[in-house]
């Protein structure tokens, strides 16, 4: 690649101050390039081990209070390469809620989702609809929906939270509202959206207009894992083996407009092909053990681990067990990239 040359640096420097007085500038030789040939992400590939996370979660459970005003007790998965967020567009955090606690009601323009990691007996209310949350369930809080959580069980409960905060911030579109009441008033019928659309294959006859946000708020472990089990007999994907995306049942598009959610299984002994794509990914290992290679770094993972893959990093997966499938929940920002026309992918061995 040829470097841009500047033979007029002295002239550029000479007019810089005058331009600056009028809120203008020209490119200076000290500026970084406007473009790079391919994405150069500051985000670093990362691996969080279950053993460390469990210890840290116990620690924040014992030491941090959960106070009114819409606060949450979360362990945020940080990225050393970024000033904010797990990836350039979203934060992945692990939320701890103890028996008897209430995480009080609020709403925000950032879209959020929860994937239940451990425990049972907590419920969340989303725009008045109450949902019980159990291990392996995916629960959505689409943009600007009210939500609060209460734990009625007797063991601490933890779940993964993902919010597209960095994306919403970059667009300067953050709104937040807290509620006076800790919990929302309940609609007469619990699980309404799940009763209407939760089968994924049918919907009520009434011809309701397609709403701006996904009308289905919960995807139970039972139905999503059954779908994955059925799909595992299909020809595998070369890069992801068996992977199913959670859908908005009315549009057929992704469950959230900006955040992609995928349930994935890797057959025993499988070694996928390597590829890269725009968009960042966070993996949560539900079960199994394997290795993910990201730009040459080997992450040996087991149940409860998290991994983060930066945009355009070459990655491949290996299931290191000879007899047990691995199951992973994946979150990415690919729906946002696709909507903006910025999604690209290629095999690692592509000639570019
Ligand atoms: O549970 O509403 O991890 O508002 C970060 C912000 C969780 C939540 C987070 C939130 C929530
Ligand atoms: Fe929230």
UniProtKB/TrEMBL annotation:
UniProt superkingdom: Bacteria
CDD domains: cupin_GDO-like_C, cupin_GDO-like_N
Pfam families found in the cross-reference section: Cupin_2 (PF07883)
Keyword Oxidoreductase annotated: yes
InterPro entries, per database record: Cupin_2, GDO-like, RmlC-like_jellyroll, RmlC_Cupin_sf
An MF annotation (GO) of this entry: dioxygenase activity
Segments forming domain Cupin type-2: 94-162, 263-329
Keywords carried by this UniProt record: Dioxygenase, Oxidoreductase
PANTHER family the UniProt entry points to: 1,2-DIOXYGENASE PROTEIN-RELATED (PTHR41517), CUPIN (PTHR41517:SF1)
Full protein name: Gentisate 1,2-dioxygenase
């Amino acid at each position: 690649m040829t470097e841009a040359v500047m033979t007029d640096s002295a002239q550029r420097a000479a007019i810089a101050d005058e331009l600056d007085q009028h809120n203008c500038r020209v490119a200076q030789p000290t500026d970084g390039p406007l473009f790079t040939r391919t994405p150069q992400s500051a985000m670093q590939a990362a691996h969080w081990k279950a053993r460390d996370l469990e210890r840290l979660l116990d620690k924040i459970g014992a030491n941090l209070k959960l106070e009114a005003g819409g606060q949450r007790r979360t362990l945020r998965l940080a990225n050393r390469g970024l000033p904010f967020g797990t990836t350039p567009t979203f934060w992945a955090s692990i939320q701890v809620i103890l028996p008897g606690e209430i995480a009080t009601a609020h709403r925000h323009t950032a879209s959020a989702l929860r994937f239940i990691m451990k425990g049972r007996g907590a419920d969340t209310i989303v725009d008045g609809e109450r949902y019980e949350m159990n291990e392996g369930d995916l629960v959505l809080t689409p943009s600007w929906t009210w939500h609060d959580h209460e734990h009625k069980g007797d063991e601490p409960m933890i779940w993964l939270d993902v919010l597209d905060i960095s994306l919403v911030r970059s667009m300067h579109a953050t709104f937040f509202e807290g509620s006076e009441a800790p919990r929302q008033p309940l609609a007469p019928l619990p699980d309404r959206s799940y009763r209407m659309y939760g089968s994924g294959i049918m919907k009520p006859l009434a011809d309701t207009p397609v709403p701006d946000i996904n009308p289905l708020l919960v995807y139970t472990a039972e139905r999503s894992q059954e779908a994955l089990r059925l799909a595992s007999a299909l020809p595998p994907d070369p890069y992801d083996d068996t992977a199913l995306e959670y859908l908005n049942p009315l549009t057929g598009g992704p469950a959230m407009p900006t955040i992609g959610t995928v349930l994935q299984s890797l057959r025993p002994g499988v070694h996928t092909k390597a590829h890269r794509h725009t968009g960042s990914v966070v993996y949560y290992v539900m079960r199994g053990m394997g290795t993910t290679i990201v730009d040459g770094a080997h992450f040996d993972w087991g149940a409860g681990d998290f991994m983060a893959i930066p945009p355009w990093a070459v990655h491949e997966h290996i299931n290191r067990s000879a007899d047990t499938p691995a199951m992973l929940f994946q979150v990415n920002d690919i729906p946002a990239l696709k909507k903006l026309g910025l999604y690209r992918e290629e095999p690692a061995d592509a000639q570019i």
